[in-house]
Amino acid sequence: MRAHPLVATGLLVSAIFSPAFADSLDLFAGTGKSPRHTYRIPTLAVTKQGTLLAFAEIRRNGSGDSGDIDTVVKRSTDGGKTWSDEKVMLDLDGHTIGNACPIVDPETGRITVLAVWNRVHESKTAPGFGDDSRRVYLTRSDDDGLTWSPPADISRSVKQATWSWVATGPGAGIVLSRGKHQGRFVLGINHRETAGEAPGYYAHVIYSDDRGATWKSSKTYATRHTNECEVVELTNGDLMLNMRNHGSPKRERAIAISKDGGESWGETTWDPALPEPQCMAAFVRHSWPDGNKPGLLLFSNPASQKARENLTLRGSTDDGKTWPHAKLIQPGDAAYSHLTILHDGSIALAYETSGYKRIVFTTLKPGEWDAP
């Protein structure tokens, strides 16, 4: 008998998520033709009122990363069982605006979404802030995701003139809940440096101490060859940045720690427990420690060093030091994914599959943990 693909790699496939995930549904599905050729880059968020929001790029004329690409959103008020029709929330001049990254303010309920714009291919983006550069935009909703403000260009506050490419997430930002930076908005981001002795891609964060009114960028970054990333707050108040490798031979996730709320980053390490084929991953805190119950971090990505395949959900109860629990979600073809936590503790997951033809949504209930 052929071994389960995760057992074969020495990983524990645990029944810690129970029951098995509910019936999945196609959240977005492309037609392969204009004007709804392909949907990509799913991101989820839960509002203060409990509404589930799903964001994606609608790639109107092809599957590539540039061209006429808008950001769309759907809403669900029943935990993802049913969804509204999609609504275009960002559309700038027939060019690309995507990588929508939401941050939900736990006090006001305001939803801030950061996204990036470009009109040329990544390989042709120019440094700075001109028409051939990559720029960062921000939009907000004060009515639970029904309507959105006109996008505002915040590039000059978060980008340096020597950067060409800059990309938010993909994923969601967080609001820090403890320590001297409590209330700070933090979002994973990356850039391509064109100057100096080591040009290339670097991951870091941007942050706001006034609930999203103004923004700053990290003063130091993770090592070269890191890019798409998501951040969580650890039990001791540190931040952990979990990053894709890009341009290096590595086939495992990169990790960096910040002890000052994302303003600077320590040494980058690699986690062999998190294999990757160089692809975006999702990283989120499910819960904090409570009495004798440990906190829970969740991670999802294609668990393969060969291809974007075998989407796996993992759990850590020791702040990401180890990942002893895993559940195979989608065998075979799977790519980008995102996670969020519903108000009842359920795990919501959206992921790309079927050769980027579908974005699938499902939910799971976390069960009792085995002893770590």
Structure, explained:
With 372 residues, this protein is mainly beta. It has one helix spanning 155-158, and strands at 25-29, 38-46, 52-59, 69-76, 87-90, 96-104, 111-118, 135-141, 152-153, 163-168, 174-175, 185-193, 200-208, 216-217, 226-233, 239-245, 252-258, 269-275, 282-287, 296-302, 309-316, 325-341, 347-353, 358-364. The chain has a seven-stranded antiparallel beta sheet, with no helix packed on it. Strands 10, 11, 12, 13 and 14 form a five-stranded antiparallel beta sheet that branches. It has a four-stranded antiparallel beta sheet with strand order 2-3-4-5, with no helix packed on it. The relative contact order is 0.15.
What are the SSEs and their pairings?
Elements: E1 25-29, E2 38-46, E3 52-59, E4 69-76, E5 87-90, E6 96-104, E7 111-118, E8 135-141, E9 152-153, H1 155-158, E10 163-168, E11 174-175, E12 185-193, E13 200-208, E14 216-217, E15 226-233, E16 239-245, E17 252-258, E18 269-275, E19 282-287, E20 296-302, E21 309-316, E22 325-341, E23 347-353, E24 358-364
Antiparallel strand pairs: 1-24, 2-3, 3-4, 4-5, 6-7, 7-8, 8-9, 10-12, 11-12, 12-13, 13-14, 15-16, 16-17, 17-18, 19-20, 20-21, 21-22, 22-23, 23-24
